[in-house]
Design goal:
Chain lengths: 286, 573
């Protein structure tokens, strides 16, 4: 059985107080709880501060192009479903440049866990406005305040056919780890938005701001995450941001539907030709 | 030639006729000129049948079946002497029935016959085929066999019988109308071990034979036929075809699958290639093998999606950000579409880089007869793929270890003792991000070294024609057939010429091209584009002691042999 230190390659170098430390800790904890080996875990990251996680996390890592996290993660998972695949993106990676892939990954329901680290700006490139920055947010790219309304990833996920929609907070790694565990055991695509402050660039939406503005969904004992209408209401209500498991649905995963031989992943095929079989196919052209 | 409007069944009629001719033992080469439109716009389909193998379109038309007068107006000038036209339209009444300038023109009321005898115009195609079967002296048994194959399973026995009745009616009417002097009988020969298929189908079959088991793509003309074929057959070989949301996803997904250990591929054309440039660069940086089949269509922009061109060569040689090793192969025949696809998968894995299989709509979508592919010759080489046992013997595994040939051993995720990082950033030998300039220099040299190492495995250009001649022609891809025929036409005019067919375009075969140029006094480069992309590439790679002349065609149509031979003749005489 592996311990957290087995997934700890080196100490990360994010800014002191960065929400990514909480995510790093939660991911290690989840991997241990699920009794994974670093060798059977593939962590795909995108471009942004979160993308540095691979440098410090012991597992097979793939630091993809900006926004292209999910196509890579999907290719890995579909060709070898025996691997556990976790994708991590920032709000820019997932909701801006990679938005098309996000929607289609949700609707395909491939068995991947996808964490979207939402700090509401572009941190690595020095604090520009992102699709989740609030209306009027002043940044280096919008010195007079942004004039665009923010995008809501969770509602978009629900509308796109997501089967596991959750939200966590980097300031509560324990709860986040339990959400990640649930996500990784969910059959299908698990989307987890992680509220995570950027301590260097975001002076408005801070750790404190998040603490004051989130509310766990399970505070309401009657809340049923299997009810889509309730989930939509919860996500659309004014006031505090709901965190926890917001929606879960039992639907066949894409692999269940498309893989010809579930016992034998595509990567383990014997590539040598069955000549008789292919000769028979050739006959159709005669 | 069969011509009409989109929706008339020109493609169906042409495909059936091509198959009949192929079964009768003739070498067949088809050419479809279709709009990117489902109904209403002019289309035509030419079929060339010959005893010697031919590869391109003919200079003119011997037998012309027109579904309307518009088609006659558009193509009558292409009719050969002794040619015959059958047209369904009284608009040509001023010239039919008659024999003008040794060409014969007839009104042939296809739709009227169909309505009167079958109460449905749809039978006009079979009536047309019946008439053609008379003119070309086709074997009825062969035709009936093919009609059964086409209709029996899908539509039932009654429909087969009706179609055969229509066929006989067409044949009968043609007998009443067409004189023996206008017949073009094709003697039946033995149908040897041959196939009739498109380049897209040959590429798809090559991919299957090469062990490709993961295919991700976005629909686009004229490349989708590769996917459609694989989608039918992959499930029986434990392979997976995924339709992605766009071409960005298609190539990235193929890279994900290849990284995990599958032989992966994508196919595209025109604008799809532009979208793939980003991930093309990633494949180069991360050293992930992948095969991209790019079937060129007319550009720029949306261009003309169903027409042929060779204007994306620059894109794949120079495209994408940064510098990285890439291999670009250009099949000159349908056999090479199959062979080079297998080659592409091996090169991609042996040199751990993206390989582009670059062909054209003319090859992608048109049917041609080829000799049956020899599956026993298929060899799979996975390069420095490392096994679990080998990996366990390594103390300090480095995915991007510096090696003399630039290629490092490749472990797959899931393997014990193989942990590594795949970085889109510059990285060290373990794959971890590294911005040290000394490491950067070594990594660049390591990756680029692979191109040099690949040199020994690449298919070199081939020289055809009169090797002693001082007149040289150079071309790539689907200009193969027209250039070969142009060389023959020039020979008849007393002009001796030789032709160098480029097969690997990148890395550029400097030595061979240099030698060829050195043996010529005059060189013509034949390309289906406006600016002479191959010509420019050649001039940038080798010293040319004289002016190269470009023969260019950017009309959206493939070359006819005469276009080439006439220009060369004019230039050298």
């Amino acid at each position: 059985m592996k311990k957290e230190k087995d997934f700890h390659l080196s100490d990360p170098t994010w800014c002191r107080g960065c929400g990514l430390f909480g995510i790093f800790a939660a991911l290690k904890k989840a991997a241990v709880t699920l009794a994974l080996d670093p060798e059977e875990l593939v962590v795909v990251t995108g471009i942004g501060c979160h993308g540095r996680l691979n440098n410090h996390f012991e597992a097979y890592g793939f630091h993809a192009l900006h926004g292209r996290n999910l196509p890579v993660a999907s290719g890995v998972k579909l060709s070898n479903p025996a691997l556990s695949v976790v994708g991590i993106s920032g709000d820019g990676d997932a909701y801006s440049i990679g938005l098309g892939h996000f929607i289609h990954a949700l609707r395909r329901n491939i068995n991947i866990t996808y964490l979207v680290v939402d700090n509401r700006l572009y941190a690595l490139t020095q604090g520009q406005t992102s699709p989740t920055s609030p209306m009027g947010y002043v940044s280096v790219s919008a010195p007079y305040g942004t004039k665009e309304f923010p995008l809501d990833g969770a509602r978009l996920a629900l509308a796109s056919g997501g089967t596991f929609i959750a939200r966590g907070f980097s300031g509560n790694p324990k709860q986040l780890a339990s959400i990640i565990e649930k996500g990784m055991t969910h059959k299908g695509f698990s989307f987890i938005e992680v509220l995570s402050p950027c301590v260097t660039h975001n002076k408005v939406i801070t750790t404190q701001w998040f603490r004051e503005n989130i509310v766990p969904v399970d505070e309401d004992p009657r809340y049923d995450p299997k009810n889509r209408t309730e989930a939509w209401k919860k996500l659309s209500s004014e006031g505090k941001i709901p965190v926890g498991l917001i929606y879960i649905e039992d639907k066949p995963s894409y692999e269940d539907l498309v893989l010809p031989d579930k016992e034998h992943p595509v990567v383990f095929n014997d590539l040598h030709l069955d000549i008789e079989k292919i000769e028979k196919i050739m006959e159709k052209f005669q | 030639m069969i011509a009409g409007k989109a929706g008339d069944g020109v493609l169906f009629t042409g495909n059936v006729l091509a198959k009949i001719l192929k079964r009768q033992g003739w070498w067949v080469s088809t050419y479809r000129d279709f709009p990117s439109n489902i109904r209403g716009e002019p289309t035509n389909y030419s079929i060339r049948a010959s005893l010697e193998k031919v590869y391109g379109r003919a200079d003119d038309v011997d037998v012309f079946m027109a579904f309307d007068c518009g088609a006659v107006i558009e193509h009558a000038d292409k009719m050969a002497k002794e040619g015959i036209l059958l047209c369904d339209g009284i608009g040509i009444a001023h010239m039919a029935p008659s024999r003008i300038d040794s060409r014969t023109y007839n009104i042939f009321p296809l739709r009227k016959l169909a309505r009167e005898n079958f109460k449905s115009e749809i039978y006009k195609n079979m009536i047309a085929l019946g008439a053609l079967s008379h003119i070309l002296h086709l074997n009825f048994r062969v035709i009936e066999g093919i009609i059964s194959e086409v209709f029996l399973e899908r539509k039932g026995k009654k429909i087969v019988e009706e179609n055969i009745r229509a066929l006989r009616l067409g044949c009968q009417k043609s007998k009443e109308m067409v004189g023996t002097e206008d017949l073009h009988p094709l003697m039946e020969r033995k149908d040897k071990d041959r196939l009739l298929l498109s380049g897209d189908e040959a590429i798809a079959m090559g991919a299957l034979a090469a062990g490709c088991r993961y295919f991700a793509a976005y629909p686009i003309c004229p490349a989708t036929e590769i996917w459609q074929w694989l989608a039918v057959h992959f499930p029986n070989f434990n392979g997976l075809v995924v339709q992605t949301e766009d071409e960005l996803a298609a190539l990235n997904m193929a890279l994900g699958a290849s990284y995990a250990g599958a032989r992966a591929m994508t196919s595209t054309s025109g604008p799809g290639g532009s979208l793939m440039m980003e991930a093309f660069s990633l494949a180069g940086m991360a050293e992930i093998p992948v095969v991209i089949a790019h079937i060129q269509r007319v550009g720029p922009s949306t261009g003309m999606p169903t027409k042929t061109e060779q204007s994306d060569l620059d894109q794949w040689i120079y495209g994408a950000h940064g510098e990285f090793p890439r291999i670009v192969l250009s099949p000159g025949t349908i056999e090479e579409c199959f062979d080079f696809t297998i080659k592409a998968f091996n090169l991609a894995e042996v040199y751990q880089c993206p390989v582009v299989l670059l062909t054209e709509q003319d090859y992608g979508q048109n049917l041609r007869t080829v000799r049956k592919f020899d599956m026993t010759k298929v060899k799979i080489d996975r390069g420095k793929m490392i096994s679990q046992e080998q990996l366990e013997g390594i103390r300090d595994y480095k995915r991007y270890r510096f090696t003399p040939d630039g290629v490092s051993s490749r472990a797959l995720p899931g393997m014990k003792n193989g942990l590594h990082m795949v970085e889109s950033n510059e990285h060290d030998e373990y794959g971890y991000r590294d911005e040290d300039s000394g490491n950067r220099i070594r990594m660049m040299q390591k990756r680029m070294k692979k191109l040099e190492s690949a040199g020994k495995d690449l298919v070199l250009p081939k020289v055809w024609g009169d090797k002693e001649s001082r007149i040289g022609i150079i071309g790539f891809g689907s200009t193969f057939g027209p250039i070969q025929e142009a060389v023959l036409q020039l020979k008849e005019k007393g002009i001796r010429a030789k032709y160098m067919q480029m097969k690997t375009i990148w890395p550029f075969p400097r030595k061979k091209v240099g030698e060829f140029l050195g043996s010529c006094e005059e060189v013509f480069i034949v390309e289906n584009n406006f600016s002479g992309q191959l010509s420019r590439l050649i001039r940038s790679q080798v010293q040319v002691p004289f002016r190269i002349k470009n023969i260019l065609n950017y009309s959206s149509q493939a070359f006819r042999p005469q276009e080439i031979s006439a220009q060369i003749q004019k230039a050298v005489q």
